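Posting for a labmate who doesn't have an account.
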Amino acid sequence: MTSITFHGAAQQVTGSCYLIETQQHRILLECGIRQGSDRREDEYEKPFDFDPASIDAVVISHAHLDHSGMVPLLVKSGFSGTVYTSSVTRGLLPIMYRDAASLLRSDYERKNRRLLRAGKKPVEPPYTLEDVDRALDAITGIDYGSIEQILPDIKISFRDAGHILGSSIVELWLSDGGKERKLVFSGDLGNNCAPLLSDPEIIREADVLLLESTYGDRNHRPLDDTLDEFREVIESASGSGGNILIPAFAVGRTQDLIYWLGQLYHEGRLSSQKVYIDSPMAIRVSDVYERYHKLFNQDDPRFRKFMAQGWDNWLPVLTYTESAEESMALNRIKAGAIIIAGSGMCTGGRILHHFKHNLWHHKTHVVIVGYQAEGTLGRKLVNGASMIRIYGDDIAVKAQIHTLGSFSAHAGQDQLIDWARHFQPAPRVCLVHGEPDAMQALKRRLAGELQCDVTIPEMGEVMTL
């Protein structure tokens, strides 16, 4: 009997991980890290509730680490099978994994300094760059639309999800006892307002649908309103003589921001500002985006104009700051800088150093352009925290905090409903990748408008197909 066990992103937004078992094989759909309040104290000591060596294959929907980031540890813990993902995601994962391993090493160096000062033994990072290389060797990329038999009883196909470059809706055909059932996993569905990517592909048939619900309880503001607010933030910062700090995901959000800031530049809105991409990972990812521009939304005339000019010419005031010295120098700029840095949820990376130097200035503006999971520093800022702690120091929040939801790469509630409406007949729906309130709101609409049988699985719950 085929079953699915929910090991992550069940009534949570991060740590996607679903174990699918047929009579013959076990595959893992997603293998992501937990972030914010989803993290457990023993995250790396007891990372898996199953034996990694028993897994025959892993399927990854896209490169974001909350969907893919535990694969190196899975390999170190005994997994020896193949990891399947889209061809473009295969090109992004080396950047993601090596950057994550480098940050992890730095975190453990700081942790070990504290342990040594306390007279305790240092500890080793959970995985190394050597484990990352082994994980990358295990990855096979599959082109969109191709149906591949990955095991005798399991076929897969990836379809464009429109969330980030290479993001996928996953189709799985599972054979068991002479019967074949189709499971569709939405992955992270894109926002139809995304400037570079196409809208999520339409799927029409499924027995079971795993549907993300990040924004299951609300819609995004109209894009034009968000762009107007962005213009106002830039003008306000220019008038007050302050800087603008934007925490952004290196994959997807940063590239969208380059596009939108280029639009504002051509409108004459960036007359006195300079834009800095302060993320080595985002710089490398932007190169990948440029290589795969044929996957972008070619029907949009604004996009064709953008690609004709290229990333650099589109935004002439753009500067990449790759080295640590260049990054530190940005904190000596008193006004006129728009600094885009990771991490997107403010859980690490260079944005924390910029916050430490700038959050206590009332002229500083912070623009939140993506989802902030419960328990993250970004969520605290959105919720109005007046004091935060960064690297052991208390920092007063005097900066102006702006939240621009339409820049999100996730579909809003109406978009989720409209995408699910195309399944005929309505499949059984399991809501994942969302907070409980968002899930309940989306469940009510799916059940009421589409007459779907909707369940909200709990962590560790086993569901038979």
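Reply:
Got it, the structure tokens are right above this. Residues 223-407 form a domain with the Rossmann fold fold (CATH 3.40.50.10890).
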